[in-house]
């Protein structure tokens, strides 16, 4: 475990030195991201504990507007699967921050959430599922032109999502 953590830190450190002239979000950018959720957006009695995981994609249709999607899974005795489209607005030009590595954004989503129960006492069965609106704010910090970290607050598979982002 310690060797894996050391290897990860060394890799991130190396990637951070590759190119410090990273640009913020632009028209034509394609971003893939993945991470974990901290705090599930649903809770049931005895729903078990599991860290939500997920990811998504975004494509820049202008320098400030992106479209994409999100997918996530939160396990446990009661699990939930999330999938749906997202619309992004990037605030970098509007706020004129002067930090080219930082990409601040917010937006809305429409997510389909499917619940299921898997319990040794009561068995397995489906639970109320459906479509619901989402809202989010977040930021990405790019260590190079193509690699960064992100954090996002919202109501999808985790209240706070953190992870890595790759820009193509």
Number of helices: 2
Rg estimate, integer Å: 18 Å
What is the global morphology? elongated
CATH class bucket: Mainly Beta
Under the CATH scheme, the architecture is Beta Barrel
Biggest sheet, open or closed, and with what strands and sense?
8 strands, antiparallel, barrel
- Percent range for helical residues? 10-25%
Helix-strand string:
HEEEEHEEEE
Compute the separation of the termini in Å.
31 Å
Mean pLDDT: 81
Parts with pLDDT < 50 across at least 5 consecutive residues = 1-22
CATH fold node name: Porin
* Sheet with the most strands: spatial strand order: 1-2-3-4-5-6-7-8
- Helix/strand/pairing class, anyone? mainly beta
Number of strands: 8
């Amino acid at each position: 475990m310690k060797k894996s953590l050391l290897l990860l830190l060394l890799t991130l450190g190396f990637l951070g030195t590759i190119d410090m002239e990273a640009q913020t979000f632009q028209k034509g950018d394609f971003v893939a991201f993945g991470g974990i959720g901290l705090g599930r957006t649903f809770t049931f009695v005895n729903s078990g504990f599991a860290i939500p995981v997920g990811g998504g994609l975004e494509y820049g249709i202008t320098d400030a507007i992106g479209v994409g999607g999100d997918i996530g899974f939160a396990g446990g005795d009661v699990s939930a699967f999330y999938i749906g489209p997202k619309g992004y607005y990037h605030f970098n030009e509007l706020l004129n921050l002067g930090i080219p590595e930082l990409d601040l954004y917010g937006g809305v989503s429409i997510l389909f959430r499917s619940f299921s129960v898997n319990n040794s006492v009561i068995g397995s069965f489906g639970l109320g599922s459906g479509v619901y609106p989402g809202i989010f704010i977040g930021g990405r910090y790019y260590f190079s032109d193509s690699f960064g970290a992100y954090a996002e607050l919202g109501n999808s598979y985790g209240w706070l999502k953190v992870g890595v982002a790759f820009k193509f």
